[in-house]
Each structure stands twice: as structure tokens, then as C-alpha cells.
Amino acid sequence: MILFYSDEVNPRIEYIGKLIFSNILQTKIAFTQNSDEFRKSGLPKINYSYEKFDDEFYIKPHKLIFQNALIKPTINTVWYEGQKYFCESSKDSDLPFDPFAASFYLVTRHEEYVDKIRDKLGRYPYQNSILSKYNLLQKPVVNIWAKLLAKLLKEKYPEFSYTESKFSFISTIDIDNAYAYQNKGFLRTTAAWAKSVITGNRQDTIKRKRVLDGKESDPYDTYDYLDSVFAGNEDKVKFFFLLGDYGRYDKNIAHTNREYRELIKKTAEKYDVGIHPSFGSSKKGGKKKVRMEKQRLEEITGKTIHKSRQHYLRLRFPKTYTRLIKAGIEEDYTLGYSAQPGFRGGICTPYFFYNLKNESVTNLKIIPFNLMDGTLRYYLQVTPEKAFEEIKTIMQEVKNVGGTFVSVWHNETVNDLGTWKGFRDVFEQMNKLGFEWDNQ
Question: Hey, what domains does the chain have and what are their CATH numbers?
Fold first, then answer.
């Protein structure tokens, strides 16, 4: 139990205090605005105000924690024991930086509300993030700061107790395109065939014919293989299905296709499944599409769907999350970058979304992901050997703080063909290690 004092216990303070102590450190926290009550208490305690009282653990708040206007705050670099931090506190504080304000800034994605720069797909570029600029994107700093707080509080108050959390592993698969050649319909198949002929892609033409003639399996049909990798650990796996209408960035087969529906049903019998809201659903005028696509998945599976991940990781604060909440989504797995592995929100613990527009906590749980297959192959352009080193490094960071590691792969990227040659081994090694650590 920790007693937390502030002159004004506003929603921001209550939210970040509970996130650090209740969620990450798994200990109780009580808030007070009564200075007399605080000073008389014999509990382990934190004074988070502009006035230090006695010998209590003290941190002077950064002004961000009391701001309501969505403006870009002034954030200066702070050095502490050879490490870079931000959101300065004061010389008489027990830490030279304010871990509560800094953590709040990161997990709420404050910078994404005020920075309007986006890439060509409408996504926030990782290069603009403070963690990227401070070289901290590959560190779960919020979890690290929580551990630092716990250590210092334990030194000051030996009776202070908290729980060391355990590493957990979630392997997720996005089904953007269930099959490469099969079940595309006459018009799409004919157009694709003509394109292969016109461009002189003889290998694709031959392969397409062999698959459609039943002489060869579809290169994206890796579902039996995935079952073999996940055997015995099905409870640690999530599948996300794209069920949007056909469009420039939404090219999966129709949700009415019998074979696709059977695939979804079969998958939902073994694994937890969620909706993969289409690119179209995140565009202007796509407000109703999330609910419609979710209903399609519910109709196919016969189950209520509570989980999602945005197609192309299209995520705008707070619009995307408010749409998901209205559609009945309770868990979202979108928070991460397409171009870099690491920790977009600086955290590897699931937490509830705080809407900065109306300064309130929601019931939508955010499960950040740490690494995606396309990041390794297309953005970093690393070899399979180097790819596994990257994965293991991030996984170790998560394990060090007892967090949750989440990966994103696709059915087509584990086929061990073409540009993905050798990455099937990477996928197997990652899952083997992740399941092993999770089961310890």
C-alpha cells in the first residue's frame, strides 16, 4: 500500500498513479488531498506537490500533469545516473525527473494529439516521437521507471511491498489476404492472370494455374503449419480477420465466400479471434464500418467479438479508439509502429485508454505490440539471423520488467517462399522461446 498526496488529485494523477502502482507494481494505492492526514500517516507515502513537508518521498510535479489544454508542452532533457530522462522535477525531489508526468505523456500518446504530421497512409511516424529522439524506443521506460520507484520506495520504507510481475507472451496473426490465388472470384482472377501475362511474370502465371488446378497448395494457405507451431499453446494466440469490403488497401476475399467462412469458423474453434477493421473503416465516412465488419465476424463465428487490430495500423487519437468503443470493442492490439520495433507508448503492460479530449478513463484496454514481421523484412531489411536477434533483444527487455510481449505476423509471411525465405525459422524460434518463457 502506498499513500499518494497531491494538492489536487485530478483525473490525470489518479489515472497514472493507478497505472504504475495497481497495474504494473500490483500494489494498492490511496490518494489524499489532506496534508494533515498525509503527514500523520505511518504508511509508505509519496508527496507529489509543490511543497516538501518532512522526510517523506518527494517528487515535485511537472506542469504537464495539471494542464488541460492540448498544447505541446515544454520538455527538457534530464540526466540521472548516466541515463536520459524527461519532465524535470526539482533538486530537492527524490528523483530529478517526474516519472508520473513522463509516463502519462507516453501512455496517453499526448504527442500524437498535438503533432499533426502523418505518413502517406495517415500514420504517426516513429521519428517524431520523443522516445525515438531520446534513443529510448527499444526500452519499456514506463515499466523501468515503475521498478525504479519501487526500489527507491523500498529503500525508504522497508515495509513497502509490491508484486514482481511475470513475463507473458502473445503471438498474433493478421489475415489480410487469406489466399493468394484461391477464392478470388472470376473477375479478380482473370485480371490478375492478365497482369501476370502482360508483365511477363511467367512464374506467377504457372503457379496460379497449378494452384487453381489443384496440383499445388495456395502459398498463403499456411494454417495447418500455424496449428503445428501453436500446438499446446493455443491460449496464447490471437487471429485478426479482415472482413471489410474490397478496396485499394482492403484486398481480402469476400466475407460471403464459403471457404473463407469455414476457415474463420475453424480458427475460432481453436483460438481467440478478433476483427481487423479495414482501411476503409478508418477513413472519413467509415464510422459505421467497424460495427458492420465486427457483426460479420460475429455472424460467422457465432461469438461476441471484443478484440481488434487496425488494418495497416491506422490509429488516430482519439477518433480510432472512440469508434472502437462505440462498436463494442474492449481490447485493441494496434499500438505499435510499422517501421520500428519497440514500445510506442513506452510500456509493455496492458492498460486502459485515457481520452485526453475529455480527460477521462475508458473501458478500452490497450495491448501494445512490440514487433511486426514486415518491420524486419521491409523496413529494417535484415537477414533472418539478424531478425531473430532483434526479436530476442526486445523480448529480453520485456522479460526484464515482467511485461507482455506481443508479436504481429501474417499467414503469408510464414510460407518460407520468395522474399520470406528463412523467416519461417525465425517465426518458429520466436514462438518456441516465447512460449518457454511464458510457461516458466
Answer: 2-156 (no CATH), 168-180+218-334+369-439 (3.20.20.370)
